[in-house]
Every structure is written in structure tokens, then in C-alpha cells.
Design goal:
- This protein is α+β, with helices and mostly antiparallel strands and 291 residues long.
- It folds into two domains: 3-131, no CATH class; 135-287, Rossmann fold (3-Layer(aba) Sandwich), CATH 3.40.50.
- It is 25% helix and 36% strand.
- The strands form two sheets. The chain has a nine-stranded mixed β-sheet, covered by helices on one side. Strands 10, 11, 12, 13, 14, 15, 16, 17 and 18 form a nine-stranded mixed β-sheet that branches.
- Helix 3 (158-168) packs across helix 6 (276-287).
- The N and C termini lie far apart (55 Å).
Length: 291
């Protein structure tokens, strides 16, 4: 069977099936992550015929707004099912199954590019959680060889703030603007670029140690403070894959990543204006350097 190999977050992933291979061989966001050879740790296989499952527990229902599709994530014992249907016609766009602990996700054929890209993101999240690996909804700046995760709800100005870093902080560059990979390796948190970067085409296949995590909020002034452990947990947890957090098994794995990260790096809250002084304040606070 045709397949492509992707090196994401330090792990080798095989993606199989004609629909997926054709897409990922042409998708520019995947090119930096393509690998020529190696033994994959995980496999996502498109083209399977998924048998019916007995009624299970629906863990999460949500809308994938990019194509206005209805998504459902459910649990059936130790088996999980993810599906996406068109909101207007209820047409099945993709369905996936995964047995917890397995290194395989099986999927139906998917001919919708947006559904295919998102379904692989979801499948990799299921496969990788046991390896201290998760996606984080954030924008990531690299400065002085270290990464800073900027968190916040959609519309709070993450991309605006990291853009101000790029314009005003020497030696700052963007690693990812939507869904980087956070891993814990030997007790130390690292951040990787990924093939998923939202509306900003930033696809960088590199890894950097994490320097700090910053939760942003809009304000009529610029002020930054260190967060306590409970505040740090509350800052990071909402930015993890929300559907997986609805399951006890996955939530335990993701919370362990959060706890290890809190133990290793400082967390801050930045109330800020969309101006250069906000970027200078966050840089000075994190890296203890004047600009």
C-alpha cells in the first residue's frame, strides 16, 4: 500500500491510503516533515471499512468551522471513534477508529482536503498522548534558541502579539502560529513545529527547549505577572485538544504533560495592548534582557 512518512514531534508517522498519500505529497505544509525511510512508530491508515460498534459514550460533539462540519468523538470500552459529517447534508466525510494503546488508527477514505488534514491531526493526538506529546493551541516565538508559547482564546491577539515580537525583537522568529507540538523529554519540555499552523503558513520542522508559557488577555495597559501553580494549570489546560480532555484516559495523560511543564518552566499572564511595548515587556520579563 502507498504511504508517506512524516517526522512530527520527534516521532515517525506513516500515513497510508491513496487519498492521504496524494494529499500529503502535494501539501506544502507537509513538505518539511516528509521522511524518506525509517520504521514508523505510528500508522494512520485511510481506506478501511469500519464495522459498526455497539452504542458507546459520546465524549464530545463540536463543529469544525473551516467546512461547517459536525464532529463526534465517542468511546466504546477501550475503542474510540471519531467522525465528521457535513452540517448541511449529513454526508459522512471521514470516520476513524482507534483502540487505546494501539499504534494504529484506521479511517475511511476521505476526499475532502480540510477533513483529511484535520482528521490526521486528531488521529495523531490520540496516538501520541501516551508518549508525552500533545498539540497546543498557541502561537510560538523562538528567541535566544528557546521557545515561548503564547496562549489565549481565539481572537485575543496571539498572532498580533507574536507579530509584534517579529517586528520589534531582534533574533525572534515564528515557529508555529496555531498548533505546535509540546513534548516532555527526560523531564524537560520542548516545542516542535508542525504541519498545522492555522492561517499563517509557518511550517518549520525544528525543536526548541521551552523557555516560558504566557497567557494573553486584552487590556488598556501592559502588565505581566508570574502565575501560581493552579493558575498555570488553568492557563495551559484549555489550550490542549478539548475532545481528548473529555476522556479520563486521555485527560490523565495530558494532565501529566501539563504538570511536568509547570514544574520545569515559568508561566505568566500578560495583560496588554497591541503595541511594541507589550512585546518588549514580555521579552524582558522572560529573558531578563533590555531592548
Amino acid at each position: 500500500m502507498d504511504r508517506v512518512l512524516l517526522l512530527i514531534g520527534g516521532h515517525l508517522l506513516a500515513v497510508e491510503g491513496d487519498c492521504a498519500v496524494a494529499f500529503f505529497c502535494s501539501y506544502h505544509g507537509a513538505r518539511p516533515f516528509l521522511a524518506n525511510d525509517g520504521e514508523p512508530e505510528w500508522t494512520v491508515r485511510y481506506g478501511a471499512e469500519l464495522p459498526a460498534l455497539p452504542d458507546g459514550e459520546v465524549l464530545s460533539r463540536f463543529v469544525f468551522s473551516e467546512i461547517d462540519a459536525q464532529c463526534m468523538f465517542s468511546r466504546h470500552g477501550d475503542k474510540y471513534r471519531y467522525s465528521m459529517r457535513g452540517s448541511s447534508d449529513d454526508r459522512l466525510l471521514v470516520a476513524m477508529r482507534h483502540q487505546f494503546g494501539s499504534n494504529l488508527v484506521e479511517s475511511t477514505v476521505c476526499d475532502n482536503v480540510s477533513a483529511l488534514r484535520f482528521s490526521l491531526w486528531f488521529a495523531l493526538g490520540m496516538l501520541a498522548a501516551r508518549s508525552s506529546f500533545t498539540f497546543v493551541h498557541s502561537s510560538v516565538i523562538v528567541h535566544q534558541g528557546k521557545a515561548v508559547l503564547f496562549l489565549g482564546e481565539s481572537g485575543t491577539g496571539k498572532s498580533t502579539h507574536t507579530g509584534l515580537w517579529l517586528s520589534n525583537i531582534p533574533d525572534a522568529h515564528l515557529l508555529n502560529d496555531d498548533s505546535p507540538v509540546l513534548t516532555v523529554e527526560g523531564g524537560r519540555p520542548f516545542v516542535y513545529g508542525s504541519p498545522w499552523s492555522g492561517k499563517t503558513p509557518c511550517y518549520v520542522a525544528r525543536r526548541f527547549p521551552l523557555a516560558a508559557v504566557v497567557r494573553l488577555s486584552q487590556a488598556p495597559h501592559n502588565a505581566m505577572r508570574h502565575l501560581s501553580v493552579p493558575e498555570a494549570f488553568a492557563a495551559l489546560q484549555p489550550s490542549l485538544p478539548p475532545a481528548l480532555m473529555q476522556d479520563e484516559r486521555y485527560a490523565d495523560l495530558l494532565i501529566e504533560i501539563v504538570s511536568d511543564t509547570i514544574s520545569a518552566v515559568p508561566f505568566f499572564h500578560l495583560a496588554c495592548l497591541p503595541d511594541a511595548d507589550a512585546a518588549r515587556l514580555s521579552c524582558k520579563t522572560i529573558f531578563n534582557s533590555d531592548l
